[in-house]
Amino acid sequence: MARIFLISLPLVLLLLAPSEAAEEPSHKPSSEFKTLFPLLGRHEDSNTVLSGNVPEDQNTLKERTPGKLKKDFYRKTCPNVEKIVTKTFSKIVKENPGAIGHMLRLQFHDCFVNGCDASILLDFTPTGDTVEKSSMFNGLLLKGADIIDDVKTKVEEECPETVSCADIMVFTTYEAMSLAGLPGQKPLGGRRDSLISLATIAEENNLPRPDWSMDQIMELFGRKGFNVEETVVLLGGHSVGVCHCDAFMERANNFNGTGKPDPILPANVIEEIKKSCPNAGTNLYRNPPVNFDATPTVLDNLFFKDLVEKRRALILTDSYLYEDARTRPIVEQMAADHTLFPNRFPEVMAKLTALDVLTGTEGDVRKICRSLN
């Protein structure tokens, strides 16, 4: 069956333009800045006062999701699946706390390219085409496939050929959010696994380029159905995890080939980056990894407070959140209210994990997540 991602979206989502009051910052990213990170959003009124209980656009979500996802989907066929996921992933996190951040980013890269269908997990396809995980947009940036291997193995032991890799990924992501301090949520089930995985899909304007303007970012993610507030919330996922020096060190040393630091970075942040990344031009240039904020395993609002109070952001596009007039008011609200981001993040993740899913008889349920049956 043809995939939903090829269907043209309503014109209103494609013809988005910035308001005259929201001027694009003059600061331009480097075309050689090689790292790509999740950026989400669509033009809408960013001045809305947020309460932490913003209703989703249910009509849009229903159009993009077949409506066959439901809670307790495996109640009869694999009733212990969520307990298995919880036990297995909790053990992994005890040994590797970074697994929380890995899962959030793996989930985004899967859903945003071709829908939440576990296509990101495939190592090869029968056609021999390059798969998503080998795309220039993923590569060393993306981790977590081995986590899903471990969880899938445990699930298969109790419920063989029953639970899809796409659902296991979502269930594991929900557990990651819980371990990061958010209230536990009941995930929906019923996704099926993709039969294809193509790097070309990831590279055909389905993931952002690091040198795009904020307008380009908003247009792309608007096509996926996310508004400006959701953009900020999902980028708040950088509240957890680390970033390697090669993703941002040029901002402190040689931004845009000028031989000077990025002018929007404060002096203390420039100094922090230089101290954290002392090996420019050597084989050690990627390391050590640097925390996005001081609480790398907690989904809190410190990421936003750092932007507002210190203008601290490792990634260039994170800096744009504060520099752009459309997103700054939301960043400021997230920073001021420590309950707002933890309330909104799971709500927006629920929308993300229902994006363009396969259900019913579409796709398959893989026995091994890295390969087709």
From TrEMBL:
EC numbers for this chain: 1.11.1.7
Binding locations of Ca(2+) 2: D293, T295, D300
Residue ranges constituting the Plant heme peroxidase family profile domain according to the UniProt record: 68-373
Residues noted as binding substrate in the record, renumbered to the chain: P208
Entry keywords, A to Z: Calcium, Disulfide bond, Heme, Hydrogen peroxide, Iron, Metal-binding, Oxidoreductase, Peroxidase, Secreted, Signal
Signal peptide: 1-21
Gene3D superfamilies reported for this sequence: 1.10.520.10, Peroxidase, domain 2 (1.10.420.10)
One GO term of the biological process aspect: hydrogen peroxide catabolic process
Cofactor needs: Ca(2+); heme b
Site location (Transition state stabilizer): R105
InterPro entries: Haem_peroxidase, Haem_peroxidase_sf, Peroxidase_pln, Peroxidases_heam-ligand_BS, Secretory_peroxidase
Compartmental location: Secreted
SUPFAM superfamilies: Heme-dependent peroxidases
Disulfide bond positions: C78-C159, C111-C116, C165-C369, C245-C277
Active site: H109 (proton acceptor)
GO molecular function: heme binding; lactoperoxidase activity; metal ion binding
A Gene Ontology cellular-component term: extracellular region
Family per similarity comment: Belongs to the peroxidase family. Ascorbate peroxidase subfamily. Belongs to the peroxidase family. Classical plant (class III) peroxidase subfamily.
Role noted for this protein: Removal of H(2)O(2), oxidation of toxic reductants, biosynthesis and degradation of lignin, suberization, auxin catabolism, response to environmental stresses such as wounding, pathogen attack and oxidative stress. These functions might be dependent on each isozyme/isoform in each plant tissue.
Protein's UniProt name: Peroxidase
Phylogenetic classification of the source organism: Eukaryota, Viridiplantae, Streptophyta, Embryophyta, Tracheophyta
